Amino acid sequence: MAGRRQWQGGTGTLRVPGRDAAVPVEIAATYGPRRRGLLGRDGIEGAILLTPCNSVHTFKMRFAIDVAYLDKELRVVDLHVMQPGRLGRPRLRARHVLEAAAGAMAGWGLRPGVQVVIA
Questions:
Q1: What is the pLDDT of residue 20?
Q2: Of all helices (H) and strands (E), which one includes residue 108?
Q3: DSSP letter string over 40-77?
Q4: What is the pTM of this model?
């Protein structure tokens, strides 16, 4: 969904062009779930979308994560692997952040420039 979609918290699916299978995604669209993110977890099946968001940290996290910064059109602006205890710098064009276990996004075919669909 592109444009000024008003996100609701809950669950959905992530579709990556060229990949048949959808990826389960949690949607953290309010302050509490965004603040909590993946803290206190030992892993995640699928991904979590933090919205609105343009910067993350991995302080007190138990595992490394892939971080995809998405613009308002859900196009990947930047992609990084973050180890626990790191502070990511804000990406000015990013409106959303997608987080998953380290290595997952490469398997899904995510890279800068790819536009995803979240439904």
A1: 85
A2: helix 104-108
A3: T-S--SSEEEESS-S--B-TT-SS-EEEEEE-TTSBEE
A4: 0.91
Please count the residues of the chain. 119
DSSP 10-35: EEEEEE-TT--S-EEEEEE-SHHHHH
Residues 65 and 106 sit within 8 Å (Cβ to Cβ) = no
The tokens of 40 are what?
A: 């206190």
Distances (CA, A) of 108 to 87, 101, 102, 104, 113: 25, 12, 12, 6, 14
pLDDT string in tens for the chain (119-residue length): 444 566 788 899 999 998 888 999 999 999 999 988 898 899 999 999 999 999 999 999 999 999 999 999 999 999 999 999 999 999 999 999 999 999 999 999 999 999 999 99
Q: In Å, how far are 28, 48, 69 from 36, measured between CA atoms?
A: 9, 11, 18
